[in-house]
Design brief:
282 residues, alpha/beta, Rossmann fold, Helicase, Ruva Protein, domain 3, 2 domains, two-stranded antiparallel ribbon, 40% helix, binds S-adenosylmethionine, rRNA processing, methyltransferase activity, methyltransferase, rRNA_adenine_dimethylase
Length: 282
């Protein structure tokens, strides 16, 4: 059993299999709280851990927290006894991803604020982009993952994840957090990523299309897409959008991926598309 004192030794109790790196840096905790949306919607926290971020969240918001580790749940129940009793904190002791398969994480609009378990961070973000009740995300992830979601077209890190996130809303890498801010310290740099959603992703075929487009990020987009579509159609579709046959996947903007997808799916004729031609912003 974990000592209910908030000063428990994170180093000793951390379980690697659950991606436990506890955020102990008060400056970073405050920066996260200051970056939160300023409205009355509740917050969903995934992986409250020892509760060091949770204790600030419950001061300003109604919170639903999902924690998979039963030992930590027991600790959290004791630490937050009063706020659980008065309804400000709902603690769900379960694997968030299996819960999400059945329903949204909240039955009303919510913001996600979390120091995510890194081994499933990408899955959680993608799942949140598809949850109609999730309005925004403010999440700590591995810096490399934050860059994949927030990179701009033309940057090497621009990926299918960036296209998806930018299709859902505004994406911003807020700040970096060094390993020594956590106990135990992870091997990598972390970053806080914010996504403010304007729409919900609801087309899984578009996701599959992007996976094909970015299969081999250093090859041409035409080569990647030709694995699924006729090469002549791919080159014609690229041409209709003023994209040359040698363009690489990371060089094409989000809006053009949507046009390409529609053309290749047959929703839009390339020539028709050409008349009100969208072009790549230089
Ligand atoms: C990086 S730690 C963050 C802990 C705490 N929020 C903090 O900032 O110190 C990730 C947390 O997510 C929890 N977790 C891991 N996998 C989970 C899952 N599938 N569902 C819910 N929580 C999970 C871990 O047990 C751990 O508490």
């Amino acid at each position: 059993m974990i000592n209910t004192n908030s000063r428990v030794d994170g180093e000793k109790i951390a379980k690697k299999k659950f991606g436990q790196n506890f955020l102990k840096d008060e400056t970073v905790l405050h920066k996260i709280i200051e970056s939160m949306p300023n409205d009355d919607d509740p917050v969903v926290e995934i992986g409250p851990g020892l509760g060091d971020l949770t204790r600030y969240l419950v001061e300003i918001k109604d919170v639903t927290a999902y924690e998979v580790d039963k030992d930590l749940c027991e600790h959290l129940r004791r630490r937050f006894d009063a706020v659980i009793s008065d309804g400000r904190l709902k603690l769900r002791c379960t694997d968030v991803l299996s819960h999400w398969d059945q329903e949204s994480l909240e039955d009303r609009p919510y913001h996600m604020v979390a120091n995510l378990p890194y081994y499933i961070a990408t899955n959680i973000i993608l799942r949140a982009l598809k949850d109609p009740n999730c309005k925004s995300l403010l999440v700590m992830v591995q810096k490399e993952v934050a860059e994949k979601f927030s990179a701009q077209p033309g940057q090497k890190a621009f990926s299918a994840l960036a296209v998806l996130a930018q299709s859902a809303g505004e994406v911003h890498l807020c700040f970096d957090v060094p390993p020594e801010s956590f106990v135990p310290a992870p091997k990598v740099m972390s970053s806080v990523l914010r996504i403010v959603k304007k729409r919900t992703l609801d087309d899984s075929e578009f996701e599959t299309f992007l996976k094909t487009a970015f299969t081999q990020p250093r090859k041409t987009l035409a080569k990647n897409l030709s694995a699924r579509f006729d090469k002549k159609d791919v080159v014609a579709a690229l041409d209709s959008l003023d994209l040359g046959p040698s363009v690489r996947p990371h060089e094409v903007e989000t809006s053009l991926y949507h046009h390409l997808y529609k053309i290749l799916k047959g929703d839009i004729d390339g020539r028709e598309e050409n008349s009100g031609k969208p072009t790549q912003q230089q």
